[in-house]
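Thread title: Can someone regenerate the structure for this chain?

I was given the following input by a collaborator and told the matching structure tokens would be attached. They weren't. Posting the sequence so someone can regenerate them.
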Amino acid sequence: MQDFDILVVGAGIVGIASAYHLQRNSPGKKVLVVERLGDVGQANTGRSNAMFRNTFTSVDNQTLASSAIDFYMHVQNDLGIDVGMDSIGYMWLMSEAQLSAAEGHIRRMVANGVEVKRYSEEELRRAIPGLETRQRSDDSRLMSLPDVAHGLFGPKCGRLAPEKLTGFYRDAFVEAGGKILFNQSARKLLVEPRDRIGIDGEPFVWQRSRVAGVELADGKEVRAGTTVVAAGAWNNKLTDPMGTDGHAKAKKRQLFAVPAGGVPLLGDLLFAKGFNPSGTLPFVILPKSGLFIKPVKESNEFWIGCEDEVNRPYMSYPDDDLEKFLAEPAYYENDIHQILKEYLPQFAGVRPSRMWAGLYSYNTLDNMPYVFPEEGLIVVGGDSGSGVMKGDSLGRLVDAVYRDGWDAEASLYGDVPYRASKLSFAHRDVEREDWVL
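Best answer:
Regenerated them for you:
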């Protein structure tokens, strides 16, 4: 198969954004994306909650996300390309103890230019229809549900359309001269010596080796000067066999769509006024178990999920077929719904109309993304469930590493400088992220 200057494995948000920036900044180069599905953003990007925020505990995450959000807003507002940006805001509902523990993070957010607004308990009760801030039932005591004492609102947060966002990058990449090979998976990385001597068994330990491309599932080879592995939860399948740690572990995450129609109090909640220009409830995070509620006004429903860490296993080599990762009705009934109806009683008796599952790709070291080079290889991933909201920034970092090496200084959107080596492992210099949903 034809040789390329750059090969990108994976066309989720991080892979296609990387390909876009690589092609845009190296117009004379031949760039190919290999994607095992039939279009961009069809795996975990398409199954995600598709939210964006800059309210992170890590200053690095704040910077990466804020810049990417600004770029997406630029695409929608200045270029006139709809990517579904809707700044409905994030509302973190907190107990007294949770707010006290978060005060340091909040001060640093404000110092770093992240806008937040506080709500009192009384303001929350007036603004969120049906919200029970005081937990008095036997069930709530059994579950140790904390009272809601405060709200922390992030206005530069909201939802987007992942299929539209990845579609923008796809079209711009192809228009710039890039090529995409759909419905073809990369089976393994090709490792060979930089200087061949023609002896069986190469490369030997005394030879300098490099990644020279990939072998596809059909046995054909695609060779490239640089190979970018951006396969998300499946990074390890490519990097581990060649002795490079992919630093990614996957966990299943589930979403449950609950209709608001037919329950007047749910309709009132969906279209709660006063938070945003859309006239809807913001994205709400309850104070127990990271349970969240997303309003989807177009379909008149809520998407509901939960941060279920305990008893949810990590997977180093998840199956390629996401259809095998099923949402669990009993998980909604016995876990999520029990918490939900205590804080918002209008959900009592209401069940999901549909449900689905996907995978988060965690960097278990610090919940922060990574970008690092090896010989002929750049690996990007570990976004820990926030790839959509940092995809553009990670793509710019991949491009900077390709052009200027491991210690490149990338220019994120808005002329924000960011040293690529901060997200490496040999020279890592980031703070752990504590607010993961």
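The chain has a mean pLDDT of 96.
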